[in-house]
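Handout, section B. The chain below has 493 residues.
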Amino acid sequence: MDRPVPISRPPDAPAAAAAPRDRFTIPVLASGGILMAVMQTVVVPLLPDLPRLTGASAATVSWMVTATLLSGAVLTPVLGRAGDMYGKKRVLTAALALMTAGSVLCALSSDIGVLIAARALQGAAASVVPLSISILRDELPPERRGSAVALMSSTVGIGAALGLPLAALVVQYADWHTMFWLTGALGALGVAGTWWAVRESPVREPGRFDVPGALGLAAGLVCLLLGVSQGGTWGWGSARVLGLFLAAAVVLALWWWQQLRAERPLVDLSLVTRPRVGLSHVAALLTGFAFYANSLVTAQLVQAPKATGYGLGLSIVATGLCLLPGGVTMLLFSPLSARISAARGPRITLALGAAVIACGYAVRIADSRDLWMIILGATVVATGTTLAYSALPTLILRAVPASQTASANGVNVLMRTIGQAVSSAAVAAVLVHHGSPVGGVPVPTLHGYLLAFAMAGAVALAACATALTIPADGTRRARAATRNARDDALEGA
């Protein structure tokens, strides 16, 4: 494989003129990550009312979530690879522009077909975080890189925590199209800010884009995630779901075979099979599962009617405010994650984060009736997620060549997405199985919620164990050996 080609800076660009812009690089990239997470969340408060607003069935309306999930899963590794080859800033700007176009289309239409297509366009924004992390690696000095990457990783949780109450407020007090006008305006600002404040990354991977690999991965992921997301609706034993899983297995097996033989593969499987990279991807999948259950279960639990004996009957706005402390915690704890990774290594940070997530679910199991305990448990889970999510890209950055950071982080984000999709299906299955009628409407029992917490906590412990099996960073081992040798020499003197 050809060596990465550095792209030189324009000779007529004075350093003094570029310096003021450089101060805005991290805030602009972080705001893009937060906006991406907000965009994914804002449609949730609308779902109960969309059948009435659009004249479509509830099953059809659910595709406004499914379409974003599928397109994001497919486009994240594809756009990551395109960024490595054609320029990360260029692809990042295009992803934000697609997200903005999707918001404008949603704001202009009430037709469910247009809305679903627009939400699929917005799925391109899922690549914002891996592309931004790759830019930060290329542009920032090592002493600033760790904290910036940690902040960028935390934007996913911060945006999700902000998006729900923001969307609920808009839905409650304004026309629902206003929400999409707002995200469209913020997206336009993100495109302009990226164009102005972010430098084009100087490292690229030469070669021709692997179109067959991209199509094969897209087909396999669509079959897999469509089966997972629709299994509860269509029936896990139905011919459609089983056929999708079988098709996913066949297509992804053929895709793997094709990638091993491609001259310029979409995903370098020689990297994926390295323990430090492969185990990081497994940990990302498990952490995504454990993290997502927190938001799903908390939102349903506090909105459950008081007649259940445990529910608090909160509004959607109040529910969003319950999750807000977790988003603030993620913002505050991202610098701590970077310090732990610098001192002990990112795999220790990842293991610690997964263990904290498990502790948060232990709090949820101990008491899920009092509001303050519910908020405390959800915030502890969010804290652990900050540590874990901040460590994952650092693990990838230290294990892959600079020319493949966007595509490798794209695969890591893909694994988180798959984990979240499986978590959604698993939590829904548990809650449906443990339900009882309240006022003639089936509602999950408290026992069902506690089982969901226990399941997510067990997966978090599995993520912790996986993190501890990741080989230590060779750079850190070499530095430690150098320090030990120096200390021995001083003692001998």
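Note. Confidence is low (pLDDT under 50) at residues 1-18, 478-493. Compare this with the example in section A.
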